[in-house]
Design brief:
- It comes from Oceanobacillus polygoni.
- This is RimJ/RimL family protein N-acetyltransferase.
- Pfam families: Acetyltransf_1 (PF00583).
- GO terms for molecular function: acyltransferase activity, transferring groups other than amino-acyl groups.
- By secondary structure, the chain is an alpha+beta fold.
- The chain has one domain: 3-Layer(aba) Sandwich (Aminopeptidase).
- It has a 7-stranded mixed β-sheet, with helices on one face.
- It has 4 helices and 7 strands; from the N terminus they run E-H-H-E-E-E-H-E-H-E-E.
- The radius of gyration is 15 Å and the shape is globular.
- Helix 1 packs across helix 2.
Length: 159
């Protein structure tokens, strides 16, 4: 599937904040607030659109992709580009994950050449972890927050 990446807009931010996932992925449900809209429309958030300009997912780069509970565990001590992502619930489980994730990795790789890529994922999210492993990510650091257990995963930069 072909994807286009654009900057997050207020319209897309509102749509993302209204997504509702089924259990156990409801952990990722967000609340629509003016503060949340402001955060998502910051300069580090992007949307992923299909060829019909339908919103398929989003991602962020840098500090917004980090889980603060990981700092005391040294989860973010290495110099990497951090990414966080989410796919629209209607598209999950339909075999689009690898092409969606590859589009994000290609974009990030072009913008942050010669840097390892790191992401943080809740350990219960086995479906996402399998996808990340398939894309070349390896587990790095495990840590606990008040809400869940997380791991960081790193994909080394390759020439």
């Amino acid at each position: 599937m072909q994807f286009t990446i654009r900057k997050m807009t207020e319209k897309y931010a509102i749509e993302v904040l209204c997504w509702k996932y089924e259990r156990p992925y409801d952990f990722y449900n967000q609340v629509l607030t003016s503060h949340a809209i402001m955060e998502l429309t910051g300069k580090k958030y992007y949307v992923v659109l299909d060829r019909f300009d339908v919103l398929v997912g989003f991602f962020c780069v840098g500090a917004p992709a980090q889980v603060p509970a990981g700092y005391p565990f040294g989860a973010y001590k290495e110099t990497c580009v951090d990414i966080g992502l989410g796919m629209k619930p209607a598209f999950t489980g339909r075999g689009l994950g690898l092409s969606f994730f590859s589009a994000i990795l290609d974009f990030v790789g072009e913008c942050y050449e010669k840097m390892d890529i790191r992401l943080t994922v809740a350990t219960f999210n086995k479906r996402a972890i399998r996808l990340y492993e398939k894309a070349g990510f390896v587990e790095q650091t495990k840590f606990q927050s008040k809400r869940a257990e997380f791991i960081t995963m790193i994909k080394p930069w390759v020439k």
